[in-house]
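Data availability (excerpt). All sequences and predicted token strings are deposited with the supplementary files. A representative entry, dTTP/UTP pyrophosphatase, is shown inline so that the format can be inspected without opening the archive.
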Amino acid sequence: MSTPEPTLVLGSASPRRTELLQQLGLAFTVCPADIDETPFSDEAPRDYVERMAREKSAALDLKESTVLLTADTSVVLEEQSLGKPENKDHARAMLTALSGRSHEVLTAVCARDPARSEVIVVRTVVEFGELSGRLIDDYLATDEPWDKAGAYALQGLGGSFVRRVEGSVSNVIGLPLFELRELLQRFGLVPVLGKDAA
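Structure token line:
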């Protein structure tokens, strides 16, 4: 008798992560984690995203035969995590700082079942072209920058700001699909590409 495939739970309210995970053709349920996401003083960005992924996982109940998946993404400029914009002025300052420069996007992904847990951290380098004040103001007049690390969405209108990407594109959106597929396989979950997730 074959062992049943474990149940997958995504511990995130992000619609972008839901859409990305659906691309792997795995059935899953969504159960967001609610934690304090305040960085520690002098906490390195890589340490921060890894801690957030682990703490989101720890905040959720884990049932038998379940794999819990949590993640955290940060946009990093000069070793400083930019986070999500608090208001229009904050978003403008972020985009102005990113203009004409390269920055990092770090995503930590934690997979946990009753026997073990594993965290991976994936790094992508994104280079912006020069952004005029008018372009930034036009972008801020849309709904897109809000609730996005670094105040932009690569998969949306903000994609036109990006001159070059080095590394995983899906990592910038919220989940590094190549590394995620390999991680889930190590937990007994085999993606079926082309199959719609139930």
